[in-house]
Write a structure and sequence with these properties.
about 325 residues, alpha/beta, about 10% strand, globular
Length: about 325
Amino acid sequence: MTLERIAVVGAGAWGTALANAAARAGRSVTLIGRAETTAAALRASRQNLRLSGARLDARVAVTAAIGEAAAADAVLLVVPAQSMREAAIVLAGAIRPGTPVIACAKGIERGTHRFMTEVIAESAAAAVPAILSGPSFAIDVARGLPTAVTLAARERRIAEALARALGSATFRPYHTTDVRGVEIGGAAKNVLAIAAGIVAGRGLGASAAAALTTRGFAELMRFGMAFGAKSETLTGLSGLGDLILTCASAQSRNFSLGVAIGKGEPPGASGDKLAEGAFTASVLIDMAMEKHVDMPVSAAVAAVLDGKLSVDGAIEALLTRPLKSE
């Protein structure tokens, strides 16, 4: 299976970074933005304002015409999780049957409780859904710094072909058929990163941060196993690896949101910075309840975000839980 022509739909920071990665892998790349004015500015400057110091690779073509996706052997769909359905519906009319469409967002759709590959399958019937996730910041990928991620598709040959198509000396995709495990790791870690940020913003110390991250990962494992994920996926790049990255860096929007909340700012005060975990938290807890999975840290985050519990109340509730074996 040869995948030479790659379309990247979504010209934000992550889409621009992945376009660079695909170009470095030797592929023919078209970056498709939402508006012609944005595409024209990016064509002229080769600079995404959200990626300071990193230029768009000269080999990447830039357009606002979604019809250009028709020529692609594979499509990276790089839009926020809650916009995935709308984008997939638009893309559906452009792609050829059997085209792999890789979701590059980490979240679960509100209302439907659908994972990203399920959204693509429902919205673009001609597509072959896949998912890319893992410990990666857009600026690192855009600059060509060493990064490893996980790429999953239901069929091994497709997952392997996609990994070969995007892989390079500085961008290493590990392939798997455990689509659900990759999706759960990416979605759940965002919620836990908000919790880690709250701990940091409240000044509770490194010991509390380590305890929170460890117990949070136990929640992620329980949730993942309940939904059929493989343990090796959850302990891999798209689970534990991504959790480590986002629970310890201010570059993470979810962690930064948590820091702001921990310092007393209201949950919606982070301006236009998208924190996927803020949309995922309540959905994650609803789904956990359906499977009778205990997720106290994630539930506390959801309660704080929904205004049902104060930060101090959430901390007290976690610290006064009954003692038990690990």
